[in-house]
Amino acid sequence: MSFLTLADVSKSFGHLHAVADLNLSVEKGEFVSLLGPSGCGKTTTLQMIAGFVQATSGRIVLDGRDITDMKPNQRGLGIVFQSYALFPHMTVAQNVRFGLEMRRVSRAESEARVREALSLVRLDAFAERFPRELSGGQRQRVALARAIVIAPPVLLLDEPMSNLDAKLREEMQFELRAIQRRIGTTTIMVTHDQSEALSISDRVVVMEAGRITQVDTPYRAYERPENRFVSEFIGKANLFSGTVVAADEMHCHIDVGADRIEVGQRSLAHRGDAPRIGEAVTVCIRPEKVRLEANGSGRLPATVTSRFFLGSQWLYRVDCRLGEILVCCQNEGDEPIAEGESVGIDWKSEAVRFVAQEARHV
Q1: Distance (Å, whole) CA 352 – CA 105
Q2: Would you call 302 helix, strand, or coil by DSSP?
Q3: Which domains does the chain have, with CATH numbers?
Q4: Bridge partners (DSSP) listed for residue 16
Q5: Which residues, at least 6 apart from 19, have a Cβ–Cβ distance to it below 8 Å?
Q6: Is pLDDT at 195 greater than 60 in this prediction?
Q7: pLDDT digits (tens, 9 = 90+) for 20-45
Q8: Which of 31, 111, 272, 342 has the fewest CB atoms inside 10 Å of its own CB, making it the most exposed?
């Protein structure tokens, strides 16, 4: 049995179905991210696990114990809020100690656990400071220390890095993951940031309109999106609709307008069944899987319509017979291709993926 299980969990606010028939199993020690756009139900799901929102239906079971109707303080979970919710009149050490005092932990044990938690988040020297004297990253680490000091069975993170600047946010992502691995606490994080979820999670749970559309490892969710929504929400995608005109065990040929796209065996295996001749399908090609070639080379001629410098990469928009295509190229230090220049574009047939038009809710 999984460590944490949500079985047919739903939440309705009047006629609004915020979460519908959600099923999810989380293993002990796993780091899982609930990922999706605003309003998809991810925060409501986290709040139902925490006990701040009562589920309309379904059951939530933690380590064999039904916690569906328990009050938040009876569940013993660690929570880091988006705002950190630190007590401004308390020092760092007092903030971290607060949860232990509520649990009537002895003074000696409490002092030892606070020191250990502050050492884990590298704030030993800041114990006597107040929150106002800390940076955003330091306040976030205090909130994390306060959550883990009580040794919770599950750590819940609600957009924990949304208030940090871009550079600090990236640094804290990896620090959070390193801390989670050291303590081994089962962790569920809510985020709308795809790169954040992909970089530190064991699995991502992609949600849309109150339902789960795909649960997978970050790599597979990106490389094998199961539907159009996932392919567009996680990263960038070139999507084309076409009709199957030929198929065998190794390859499939799709007519897209006046052009033909070949799909390799790996994509067919992911789909699970061979497409039928005449079937309408949608295929996805990630921008970094498309190559820019010299004019007259490659699969299709194209014209560069715009370019964007991303530091380590160049993102090009090119126009071809398939329409507008995004191409992402590594910045090698060479002069970029000019807007208006004629080029060729190419890709490996194995880079093309089948995606379902509609989500298959899980």
Answers
A1: 57
A2: strand
A3: 4-229 (3.40.50.300), 236-287+348-362 (2.40.50.100), 291-346 (2.40.50)
A4: 13
A5: 9, 10, 11, 41, 44, 45, 48, 210, 211
A6: yes
A7: 999 999 999 999 999 999 999 999 99
A8: 272
